[in-house]
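Final report, closing paragraph on structural work. Over the funding period we assembled a curated collection of sequence-structure pairs, and we close with a single example.
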Amino acid sequence: MSGNKRIDQPTGTETVGHEWDGIEELNTPLPRWWLWSFYACIAFAIGYCFLYPSVPGANGATGGLFKWSSRDQLQKELNARDAELNQVRQALVAADIHKLEGNEQLMQEAIAGGSAAFKVYCVQCHGAGAAGSKGYPNLNDDDWLWGGDLATIEKTITDGVRQPNHVETRYSQMPAFGKDGLLQPAQIEDVTSFVRVISHQEKPSASSRRGQPIFEANCAICHGPEGHGDRMQGAPNLADAIWLYGGDRASISQTIANSRFGVMPAWGLRLDKATIRMLAAYVHSLGGGEAMPAAEMAADMTAADVGAAQEGPVEEGNVGE
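Its predicted structure, as stored:
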């Protein structure tokens, strides 16, 4: 069929000699600009093969005349960034945690690093937005079991809560009043009514009035007579509207009867101090972070500070520095 080539009269273009049911194919030449672009691409590819890594071998690609690769370039940038971060990390470790908020630039660097670390280590329990879920605390509010200042948050992250085989871990244990036979089911229901009254979820009733002396005898030693909790023991505030396991009757009764035993890892056993301090700064910045207690700030004064304060009269012009 290719021997049937002829010139197509309407276009003046030679046919390729193929015909299908009267339909013929024209041998239209490619545009010159397309051909020259194609030749240029071939020349570029050949030049690239000589200048840059391109031809694969048994143990890697050819190096090229320029000895450059995107992988090496990325590694250089990563190393440069690591050097910058290492300076920040060293500064964080050397900084006094009680004075970190006063160093705005370092604090912002810590928060940025903590945000990244939080997405790796903490979102599995506390969620991407740190809002938590049932049994996992919301870190955005100002309700804290142990305290919300930087030093206390760092301590909690470092040593965890009820971390097995770790002496320094934070530990609190509520009795299982029902399972251990300390209270009868009717008494648990009465205590539940009293807790819901002090948390402003129910109006006083005969049940809550019966529950009050039971609460005072069994629960007030940790939660306080008014249910405001005790951070020294990690006992939650029962008078607010924030619940870790739920504030409905069923959830409160379940907690009283069987207790709860949430565990948080002691991240000090897995992470370095700089990363933990970054996490503490990030959590503190989420909205519920508290100022350092005045008593703790006073206790943190060094002997040199005390000695300087007790020396003779200061020179004029140095007062207040």
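DSSP finds twelve helices and two strands in the chain. Residues 80-171+263-293 form a domain with the Cytochrome Bc1 Complex; Chain D, domain 2 fold (CATH 1.10.760.10). We thank the funder for supporting this effort.
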